[in-house]
Amino acid sequence: MNDLFGDFEPDYAALSTAFEPNDTYLTAAELREGSHEVTGSGVDWYRLEVVSGEIALDMTPTSERNGNIQNVNMELYADPQENALVADIHPGGGSESIRYLAGEDGTYYLKVFWARYPEGDLPDGQTFSYDLNVDLPEEVISDGNDTRETATLLTDSGTSYHSGTGEQKSSHIHSFRGFLGCPNSDVFGTNS
Predict the structure, then answer these.
(1) For residue 158, what pLDDT band results from cuts at 50, 70 and 90?
(2) pTM exceeding 0.85
């Protein structure tokens, strides 16, 4: 940008049209965790790089048209050329939320659009604004005690306390030898 004082770069990465151009999934802007104030000029596509876990997206329209809050909708995709995994499409101009449990690490796509113009064909100069809050799953480092093969051997030599991080949605597996007076048996138990 340029003004009376010369060239400068604005310092508002998550404000206004900072994500543009992102009108197709091919030009999807990278979306990071946090709160974002956005002004869209068509369909807004975002790319989310996530680890497995819950993706939480909350969107509140903030612009009005003819005295009414604009009805802005959103859809989440694993493949933008396929059907949406989940969508939150409400009539009227209220807040919308998406909660999706990503079963694997990967790239997901979020499409945000003004319901009146779902294909992004807004008349020239028309925009829509919204607040977008993004909460992405965080990677949890394994403590190495998450499978039968890596189970920690528990002995009868006293009391010990173990705490582990484990992976999300995993169980800690412990191996017990000599369980219930059977000295040659191996019994595996889980706690979750």
Answers:
(1) low
(2) no
